[in-house]
Structures are given as C-alpha cells and as structure tokens.
Write a structure and sequence with these properties.
The chain is an alpha+beta fold. About 40% of the residues lie in helices and about 20% in strands. Helix 1 (about 95-105) packs across helix 7, helix 9 crosses helix 14 (about 465-470) and helix 11 runs antiparallel to helix 13 (about 450-460).
Length: about 950
C-alpha cells in the first residue's frame, strides 16, 4: 500500500524530508532512558480532550475512540492503528512490517484469499481510493471508510478490522506471490535521482539512530528470500491488542459501536511473554554536519540548512500559544521570502524557511528550523544560500514589525472564526486523523469550541516582543545540518564545505531592518456603476436559479447547506488561447502571469496584506478554450471576492519585474529538464499525442525568447474586454435575494461588448493508426509504459456511462493480471479521458512501471486482457462493483459544493440537460454484460493504438 514518509526536495517545491525505499543498514542501538526522573513543571493549564469523544480500553489493552459525526451522512471512518512499524523488525525481518500490511489484504481467517476486497468492492468501497493502509517507522494504520445505511455491512466492517488485528493467515503461496509486488513498489517509488541521493543523505540526517537502518521498504534481498516463519513471527510478536486502537467516527449510535468493538476485539489476546516495545531517539550533533551530493538526473541546485531542536507534544495552554507563535513566524518569514522572489534581481529562484517537525515528524519530539535555497547554477548557489540565511539573520537581529504581526493575527483570527462556524460540518476523515495522532503521539484533541477560545485568547495575548524573542531561539549553534544537492555537471562549480560554513557564519554581517511595502489604498477607487438582473429562471428539480444580468452575463445560483461558511464560484466564456495567432501563441500562453502579478497598484505581497483577515478571494484564468473567473469566500466577505473579480477584469497589473523573474526561472527549469528521464518521457508523450503540432509541443528555450510582456498583457486585456457571454456558477450558503445586489454591483457592471465569440479548432489531434515510440533515458533498471486506445466518438451521457463501466472493469482485470497473477507491477493504472471540444474524443490509457526485462511480457498480458474483455465483456461481478461504487460516490457528491460547481459548469459548457444527474441510477442500471461487450468491441479498437515506453539508456 502507500508509504507514510515524506520526500526530500528535488526541485522548486522544497520539502524538508527524506524518502528512500532502501538503504544499507548498520547495527542499531536502543536509547536507554535514565532510571531516575525529575518532576517537570507544567507551564500553563492542561488542555482537556473533547468530552464528546468516547475513549475506552478493553481488558486486553486495546484502546478505542468513538465519535458520532454526520458529515458525510450515512458514512463512517473506521481505523485500526497499531503502534508498530519497521523499527521493531529484527535484522532478518527488514521490510516485513510493511510486508505484513500487504498480507492483510491477501487472506484472513474470516476472509480467505481476495474475498475481503471483493466483498467491499461489491458494497461500493474502492480498493486504494477508500480501502487502504500504510506502514511507517513506528506505526501501521488500516483505513476503512464504510457506509452505515446497511447494518450488515457496517457490522462486517468491525469484523474486518478484527481480522487485520489478529487473524491474518499468512499462507505461504500468498506470501511468495506478494514478494514481486513489493519489489515493484520499491522500483516504482525509487530507482531515480531522488532515491540515489536520499541513500547518501540518510546516514547524515539520521546519524547514529536506528531509523537509518530500518526504512519501511526494507532490504530487497531479504524480501526475496526470507522464510515464511519470519513474517509469521513478526505478526505474532507485534500485532497484539495492547499496542492497538480502533477508531470509529461517523453517522452511527455510539453505544452500539462500543458494543461492536467489545464483541469483535475482546477475544484477541496478548502473547504470554510480550516483547517490550522499544523507543528510539536521534542523537545530537555538536559540530555542523555537511554533505554535498550530485546526480546526473538531478535538475536543480539546492542548498538546505536544518537546526534541530528537541520539542514536546502540545498538551498545555502555554504549549498551544507557543505553537501559534511558531505559525506566525513561519507566515511572516514566508511572506518576506515571497516578496524577494517577485523581484527581477532575486538572489534565488526559490527560498523558504520555517519551523516544524524534523523530516515531517520522522522522529518523535525532534523539531527543526529549516531553510532552503534554489539557485540558477552551481556557481550562484553560495549567493542564494547566503541570501536565505541573511533573511533568517534579519529576523533574529531586528525581529518582525507590528504591521507584519497584525497581518498574521488577522488571518489566524479569520480561520478561527471559520472553524467555529463549520464545527458541525467537519468531515469524519479529518476527525479520525486527530484521534489517530492522539493514540500515536499523545497530541491533544480539544473540542472545536475549546480550540476556538484558546486561539482567541492567545491572539489577544501574544505580543510582538514575545514573537521576536521566540524567533531568536530558532538559530542554534549546535545540531546544524547543511545539505547541497545539484546536477552532476555542476560539481566543479558548487560551494565547498568551507564556503558553506563561512556563509553560515557571515550571512548576517550587513543585514538591515525589514521595510514594509504595504500600500494603504482600497482595492477599488470607487464602486462600479451597477447593472440589473433582467431575467430569472428556475430549475426546481436540482434547486438552481438562473439570473440574466443587464450586460448579458448569466449566473446560476445553487444555495446549499453543505457548509455553513463557504461560497465558491467560477465562470467561463469561449475563446481562450485558441484565438491567439501562431505568431503570438507563446505570449498568449503566458497571459496567466498577468493574473499572477497582482492587480491594480498591488503586487501579490501587497494584495495579501490588504486582504489580511478577509476570506474573500477572486481571480481570473485563461485556458486553451475558455477564459473566466473564480473564487471563494465566507458569506460575510463575498463582496470582497466579487470586488477582486471586477479588479482583475478592469485593472490588471502589468509588472515587468514579476514577468521577467518568471521567465528567467522558467529558463532555468528548461535548461536542466532533459537531465530527468521522467521529463524527457513526458515531453515525448505530449508531442506524440498531439501529432507534433507546433502549438502543442513542449515549450523550449527558443520559445521563451519569443515571449513579449506587451503581447501577453494585450491578449489578457482582449480576452476580458467583453464579458457578455460569461456564465457564472455560484454554490454555497447564501440567500438568493441577498446576493442579487452584489451581483448587480460587481458582475453586471463588468465590461460588455455583446460580441458573439467561440474558440477555434487549431487541428491538434492525436495520430491515427498504430504508433510506437521508445525513449532511452535513465540509469537504472526501471521502465515506464503508457498504452493508448483512442478515437473520435459521439459525446453523450449514455455512451459515457458505458465507457466508465468498461474502464472500471478493465482496471480490475489489469490489476488482477499484472499485479496479482504476474507479480510484475505495483500499481497499474487504467485511465479514461473524455472530451467534447473542439472535437469529441476518448482515450483509454493503461500505464505501469516495471523491470525492463518484463516490458514485453506485461504489455502482452495487458493487451490480452483487452482482448478478453472485447470477446466476453465485463463479468457480472465487475458490473456489480461498478454500480455500487458509482452510486456510493454520487451519494457523497450530491452533498459537496465543489461537485455541484464542476457539474453545473460542465453541463453548461457542453450544452447538456442540467437535470442529467437525476437519471444517473437509470443509466447505471443500463450497463450489462452485453452492453460492456459491445462497448469494448467498438471502443477498445487497436486500429488507433499508441505505445510509449521509457527504458534506461543503452
């Protein structure tokens, strides 16, 4: 299943954590705790747990959490948490904690072989998307979202959890079949630059700890050769009730659930002589640890520094206040970094700093202040690194300004109010994770009301002096780690260890205090001249009202109660970049940078300051076929969101600095892109699928030289000069009569020329016939395969449901064949893409990664499954699973604001009946074995077949 540890930054999106599926282990030592203890003074009051969460413990030691919650209705989230992971493995068991998790789905006492997955799929629960599990260093978690409207199904959910907890059978043939799947999981997630560099970093990041020796994926040689008793012993030793918790959150009766837990789990027993569960630590380092690594496939020059600190779990009001101050520091320092990155002469492509859990929480109670810089070249990395360090020093020397703190406080206060208003709309999936963290780490689980009061009180009491004093503690003299990751070609140009340490020492020499660039003006100079609502139409069956405004704009309104404090909206009209000439097409593509440059006199940083504490947001977009607006708000700030829409339409910002910086950064990414096999392959896929049409080819360096800010700005202005054909869709908690005056003021006043507009079909089509292309790029034994079966078709709801059913059935068959039978892949994917404009076209996609030696065999196996479904159609079971899963998803979607916004927008774009959603059950029932067979014969046609493969370079 999926793994629960983060990924080390490999590019512009800097993430401070490491992810590697394997590493050569060393002998580990348990850190022994002192035998004497000193009473620790508690600072602040202990924060109580939510009294509405029923927390109990069975006689065998199993803990349980139960909470009634009705979002979503008739659904529950069931978790089984076990406080064991790869750290508990013996030397000859490395990887078996994760392997055990896989085996939980391959046969238990009450659900032999694949029976559990089949049963749940027929009940509408999707494997992977719903039913899932993960293994970490110190815990393993099983997740089962389940309907509660079927008593039998709901009760069976607890039976399934109990089977995971103590009744996995570990049949020998199933163990042996799963070996290949886990080896392929390692291949799919690794065997790339990230993997190779992470293996070099782990001894540094986790130096002296057992963590470096116990990566959850384990050792491949052990996975291939361990005897069955090793994994059975691991399960017997560690899967025991005194290390487990059942967490149930959902729309049910709490007392009934408690009885279900007692009935299913009380019979589980602990070993007569249980092995003690050890705890492990990460040693301190007095001298700075430095590592410089390069790789031929690394794309960016990145330098990072981490200042490790010991921390503790938040339990008291003082802890809570301190955690809020850390959040404020992160927010204010992040805003400063963003401000620098908007400048043409910025010393780094990206820079960031922040305080949080070390390596994403890898080691309990170890935090870190972490900074990173990405530079254009290896030669400029020292300068970029120094600039980020200088911002940290500016913070510690001069602190933050009151105006910065006010912005942070306003935003936190607004979020706090939203959380309180949404207290009865919190998703069960969010609550279950809170209770999971309480079991695993002891973190607090206060009620929403208590959290609200704690936050409100802390916001009132936190002073600038307190925040600045805390900021001074972030840079420490010990526990420093410096890392450089760069392309191999830059090796000779990178700063040395001595230069990095010198930068660390001298970065703050010439810093001066921060100067706030706030613009003290309103967003709009004056209110627009309002228009009028001139027509109104009802779609009563789906609760939608359509308004026509005096400037021609149509607005579809769907008031809902799905969220108490949310309104979302989007709009569209035809045109987009399809209207650009070939000569200015690349400039037109970059018109999106206009909307990213702020609005009127406000650059993005200034705009964020202006809107501090205001939940309203609005903006514009230009896609290939459409242009329009979008945004969100709470009901009280909706006027601000509409004001932003008006500003983006009438007063866009032409910012030379931001535009030039963006183009410069884009050039850097293009210069190094071809070092990555994945990027080269993605470019090839894009080119082949568009028949190498010049407007659809990947952007290259010469294209950037043709881009003009003036052309981009003029294209943007042209696209939003006439809004008469815009159609808005607004969904959320609002009153139609109350929203009308805002629509008349800010939407009915948008510029209108009343021209008839349409997009242009520029002839970008996929190639007909059979196409095969193999890309040779990469250093390791890893192949990527993408197979396309495609063609033109008649776009309509009935055809689409048949295609959806066929995709679902084929997905089951490909998974069973390639993963379960062949053991040749980890997560094969079957995709279906349907488009109506500019021409109706469908794509079936089969994709997977595998060993290079297995490419031909697995492609043949996949195409054999295609042939079988063409000859026989989907099975009755496949169709039953599809209907159940689709029906369950529809039930959830009908109470989701985002679904309705997307659904209504698409129906309007495609000219469909808005009531179409009401007939979905009828369309689902029209799917049969025979219709699936006919659909497969017609659409899984290998006359239009594209085979694309990525292989390592020869």
């Amino acid at each position: 299943m999926r793994k629960n540890y983060s990924v080390l930054c490999m590019g512009l999106a800097v993430i401070f954590a490491v992810n590697t599926p394997g590493y050569a282990q060393k002998k580990a030592t348990v850190v022994k705790k002192p035998t004497t203890t000193v009473a620790k003074k508690v600072d602040g009051d202990i924060i109580p747990n939510d009294p509405n969460v029923k927390i109990g413990k069975l006689a065998n030691g199993l803990t349980y959490y139960i909470k009634k919650n009705t979002e979503p209705k008739k659904r529950a989230e069931l978790y089984l948490a076990t406080r064991i992971g790869s750290l508990m493995e013996d030397d000859n068991q490395q990887g078996l904690a994760h392997f055990t998790e896989h085996m939980a789905f391959n046969g238990t006492k009450d659900f032999p072989k694949n029976e559990m997955i089949n049963y749940l799929q027929k009940a509408g629960i999707r494997f992977g998307a719903d039913l899932n599990a993960y293994t970490s260093f110190d815990h393993t978690v099983y997740q089962l979202p389940i309907p509660t409207d079927s008593i039998a199904l709901f009760k069976t959910g607890f039976k399934i959890l109990a089977n995971w907890a103590g009744k996995i059978v570990m049949e020998g043939d199933e163990i042996d079949k799963e070996r290949g799947v886990i080896v392929e999981e390692d291949r799919e997630r690794g065997k790339n630059a990230q993997d190779r560099m992470s293996k070099q970093l782990l001894p540094l990041l986790l130096k002296g700890s057992r963590y470096a020796d116990r990566l959850p994926i384990g050792k491949i040689d052990i996975l291939n050769t361990f005897t069955h008793d090793k994994i059975r012993n691991f399960y017997k030793d560690w899967y025991r009730p005194n290390l487990q918790a059942v967490i149930a959150v959902g729309d049910f009766d709490v007392n009934e659930v408690e009885q279900l837990i007692k009935a299913n789990f009380s019979g589980l027993t602990n070993p007569a002589s249980p092995r003690p569960r050890p705890s492990y630590d990460l040693p301190d380092n007095k001298a700075a640890l430095v590592k410089i690594i390069t790789d031929p496939e690394q794309q960016y020059n990145v330098a990072q520094i981490m200042y490790k600190q010991r921390g503790n779990t938040t339990k008291t009001t003082a802890d809570y206040k301190k955690s809020m101050m850390y959040s404020m520091i992160n927010s204010m320092l992040g805003a400063r970094m963003q401000e620098i990155m908007q400048k043409d002469n910025a010393p780094f492509i990206q820079g960031q700093s922040g305080f949080g859990a070390y390596q994403g929480g890898l080691v309990p109670n170890i935090n870190a202040f972490q900074s990173a810089a990405v530079s254009k070249t290896g030669a400029t990395l020292e300068k970029a690194f120094t600039a980020v360090l200088a911002e940290n020093e500016r913070m510690t020397k001069y602190g933050f300004m009151q105006s910065e703190l006010d912005v942070a406080k306003k935003n936190m206060a607004a979020s706090n109010e939203m959380r309180l208003k949404e207290k009865d709309k919190i998703q069960s999936s969010a609550l279950v994770k809170r209770y999971l963290n309480n079991f695993l780490t002891g973190s607090i689980i206060p009620s929403t009301e208590v959290s609200y009061e704690l936050t409100k009180k802390a916001l009132a009491s936190i002073t600038l002096d307190q925040v600045n004093a805390l900021a001074k503690t972030l840079i420490t003299k010990e526990n420093q780690i410096i890392i450089v990751q760069a392309p191999e070609k830059e090796k000779a140009n990178l700063p040395t260890e001595a230069q990095l340490l010198a930068a660390l020492k001298n970065a703050g020499n010439n810093v001066t205090a921060y100067v706030d660039n706030t613009v003290d003006k309103p967003l709009l100079d004056k209110k627009p001249v309002a228009g009028k609502v001139v027509a109104e139409k009802k779609f009563d069956k789906i609760g939608v009202t359509e308004l026509t405004l005096s400037n021609g704009i149509k607005v579809l309104l769907k008031p809902t109660d799905f969220k108490n404090d949310q309104i979302i909206f989007s709009s569209f009209s035809k045109g987009g970049t399809s209207l650009a000439t070939d000569a200015n097409f690349r400039s037109a593509e970059m018109a999106s940078l206009i909307s990213q440059s702020g609005v009127a006199e406000f650059n993005p940083t200034q705009l964020n300051k202006l809107m501090a504490g205001n939940t309203g947001s609005g903006g514009s977009y230009i896609s290939d076929l459409y242009q329009g607006y979008g945004g969100s708000s709470t009901p009280k700030d909706l006027e601000s969101a509409f004001q932003m829409v008006y500003a983006y339409a009438t007063n866009p910002r032409k910012d030379v600095e931001i535009f030039n910086k963006s183009i410069s950064d884009y050039k850097v990414s293009l210069e190094n892109k071809n070092s990555s096999p994945e990027s080269v392959f993605a470019d090839t896929v894009q080119a082949v699928l568009s028949s190498y049409h010049k407007r659809a080819m990947p952007t290259n360096l010469s294209d950037l030289d043709k881009i003009s800010l003036d052309e981009a700005y003029n294209f943007y202005k042209d696209r939003f000069a006439d809004n008469s054909e815009q159609t808005f869709v607004i969904v959320g908690n609002f009153n139609i009569e109350n929203i009308k005056p805002l629509l008349e003021t800010y939407i009915a006043s948008l510029p209108s020329l009343n021209k008839k507009q349409n997009f242009v079909d520029n002839g970008i089509y996929s190639p007909k016939g059979k196409v095969s292309k193999t890309v040779y790029k990469g250093l390791e034994d890893k192949a990527e395969v993408q197979l396309y079966l495609h063609g033109d078709y008649d776009y309509d709801a009935q055809t689409n449901i048949q295609l959806d059913a066929l995709k679902a059935a084929l997905e089951n068959k490909i998974l069973e064949r390639l993963r379960e039978k062949e053991s040749g892949v980890y997560s094969p994917r079957v995709g279906l893409s349907l488009s109506k404009y500019p021409t109706a076209h469908y794509y079936f996609t089969i994709s997977f990664s595998c060993a290079t030696a297995n490419v031909e065999k697995l492609i043949a196996a996949a195409l054999d499954e295609v042939d079988q479904i063409k000859n026989n159609g989907a099975t009755v079971d496949d169709i039953s699973k599809f209907r159940s899963e689709e029906q369950r998803q529809v039930e959830l979607s009908l109470r989701d604001n985002k679904f309705w916004m997307s659904y209504l927008t698409n129906r309007l774009k495609y000219g469909d009946d808005l009531d179409q959603i009401l007939d979905v059950k009828q369309r689902l029932n029209s799917v049969t074995v025979e219709t699936s067979k006919a659909t497969a014969k017609k659409y899984l046609n290998e006359d239009n077949y594209i085979r694309l493969v990525l292989m390592p370079q020869k």
